[in-house]
Amino acid sequence: MCGINGFISLAKCNDDDRNILKSKIETMNDSIFHRGPDSGGVHIQTPIIFGFRRLSIIDLKDSANQPMVSDDENLVLVFNGEIYNYIELKEDLISRGYKFRTSSDTEVILKGFEEYGDQCVQRFNGMWAFAIYDFKKERLFCSRDRLGVKPFYYSVVGNELFFSSELKAIHAATGQTKANLQRVYQYLAYGYRMNDEETFFENCSELQPGTNLIIKNGKISTEKYWTLTKNMYAFNDNPDYHTEYEELFKSAVKLRYRSDVPVALLLSGGLDSTAIARVTDDLIESGELPPTDIHAFIASFPGFEDDETEIAREFIKTCKHIKLHEIRMDEQSISEGFEELIYGLDHPLFSFNTIVHNRIMKECKKRKIKVVINGQGADEAIAGYVRYISGVVLVDKFFSKGDFTKELKALNKNNGFSNKFLVSQMFKAMLNPSKAAYLRARYQEKILSFLNKDFVSSIDKKLKTDYKFSCNGQNLENYLLDKINNQGLNMILHYEDVSSMNQSIEIRSPFMDYRLMEFSFSIPSKLKFNNGITKVILRETIGKSLPDSITKNRKKIGFSTPFTDFLTEDTSFNSYINEVLKDTSFKSKKIWDSKKLSTVFKNPSEHPQFPFWRIINLEVWSKMYGITNL
């Protein structure tokens, strides 16, 4: 895991320009030092300059440093991420006559590209963002992993293209101080981050998951090499879904322990992370993983109703090789990490839980942890968060003439949902999901009353279309695919990358293994959600060896936080908000009525918290980056 920066001239540049650009790349490297404190490097060779910061995890020797140049000096590579199946790929390449000078996955990418060209990415199982320049072909090839775990941003300024793992590096190189107003409006009004190329900075783009970017003869093009759809997984005749899922899951977990530094776990009392911990403990016990104690970390909220610490404690008692560390969360620890995290994200916060994740990463860093495994991706792949998917399932049952009444009763019985709540979820499910209608329906009218009318009217009309009902609703598979391909998951992955890399820590997620994803969308829906129960196939495989307190706990919590308490009580965070409101930067903003908003913040319990939480975030971000057009 590392940080990459780069520049390519889309036209001819002279030596004076190169010296200036070298200085810019070095500045970019400095701005993302936290992503790779172990070493750094710059490669200059017309028409490119590549920069790199390294967090050493696989092959710790200097010979594995980057930028890495091919044996014939024709290719140069910068790479951020991990190729988990690099050992198998290396064996294949050796059989084809290639020789290796390192034990790194970086060199596997380089030689894999020499052998297979652009198609090499189809062979990778991992997370990546990389750039390779071919001097003979005068061609730049960039790629981002299938699901977008690792970030890749770029910006074209005149005849120059800059790219980086973080927007702050591009900001440092280009001096961009204008916000993308459509993204700002989208954030304030709806509170979601769509999976598209737009960022909060004007003229800065994000390369999409499963996409390659190519520059040849000064022309930029992108091509999609992978998109998650239904029925991608190739089953044998008469497949045993449960056995195959369990084998794939264990393989995904085992691959993510490939590391030359210690690996830790993020734990909650939920099904996903404890399933990973259960498999980890079993793999160590069976000798399939090296004998060692694995450290697991959980956030503790004393006195908070949804605190899962006790469940985690009971589970750990069943493990032989996992040691639990509890991280106590309080108001001071939350407010102290707020500005640091916004700077790391390069945009305003969407989720309060991100602050908690950042705090956990700080504790891991204190214990010199470099790699952490978590349970991200299971909710989207095998149907978690029952309160949100319940409406989708009921709509599908109703319009497809399925057993609607049976499903309704099951949701009542297994999750304690009232009929009134479930009916409201059905109506929300019938709204166009790509517009994040739930948040919009609840908050849009209220928040827009505090925004400048000229600002609102200037935004593209496509962001303000009326609600659209679908007479046949949408089924569970389409809903989950939309969460992965268009919204939701991309935002969560971005948070996790930033909060971990801020502390020089790599996050790995077994559920994000593309094989598991393809498998999950090729099995019957009833193996995901059935009779009001989520993640059926996980419960019926790994879940059999977990305590009932986990497998029969229907309430999805995850890293839940007492959000309202922090905003409404007289805490250090509340004091921080008051200081923001007094600042001339907040009062001088043209896009909102600061006097009206100050009144709202004096009585936060009387208003929906999330929209006004977003305003504070936007103000802190815009001041931090010197944004000039708000």
From TrEMBL:
<dbReference type="GO" id="GO:0006529">
    <property type="term" value="P:asparagine biosynthetic process"/>
</dbReference>
<dbReference type="Pfam" id="PF00733">
    <property type="entry name" value="Asn_synthase"/>
</dbReference>
<protein>
    <submittedName>
        <fullName>Asparagine synthetase [glutamine-hydrolyzing]</fullName>
        <ecNumber>6.3.5.4</ecNumber>
    </submittedName>
</protein>
<keyword id="KW-0315">Glutamine amidotransferase</keyword>
<dbReference type="InterPro" id="IPR033738">
    <property type="entry name" value="AsnB_N"/>
</dbReference>
<keyword id="KW-0547">Nucleotide-binding</keyword>
<dbReference type="InterPro" id="IPR014729">
    <property type="entry name" value="Rossmann-like_a/b/a_fold"/>
</dbReference>
<comment type="similarity">
    <text>Belongs to the asparagine synthetase family.</text>
</comment>
<dbReference type="InterPro" id="IPR051786">
    <property type="entry name" value="ASN_synthetase/amidase"/>
</dbReference>
<dbReference type="InterPro" id="IPR001962">
    <property type="entry name" value="Asn_synthase"/>
</dbReference>
<dbReference type="GO" id="GO:0005524">
    <property type="term" value="F:ATP binding"/>
</dbReference>
<dbReference type="InterPro" id="IPR006426">
    <property type="entry name" value="Asn_synth_AEB"/>
</dbReference>
<dbReference type="InterPro" id="IPR029055">
    <property type="entry name" value="Ntn_hydrolases_N"/>
</dbReference>
<feature type="domain" description="Glutamine amidotransferase type-2">
    <location>
        <begin position="2"/>
        <end position="218"/>
    </location>
</feature>
<dbReference type="GO" id="GO:0004066">
    <property type="term" value="F:asparagine synthase (glutamine-hydrolyzing) activity"/>
</dbReference>
<dbReference type="InterPro" id="IPR017932">
    <property type="entry name" value="GATase_2_dom"/>
</dbReference>
<keyword id="KW-0436">Ligase</keyword>
<dbReference type="Pfam" id="PF13537">
    <property type="entry name" value="GATase_7"/>
</dbReference>
<keyword id="KW-0067">ATP-binding</keyword>
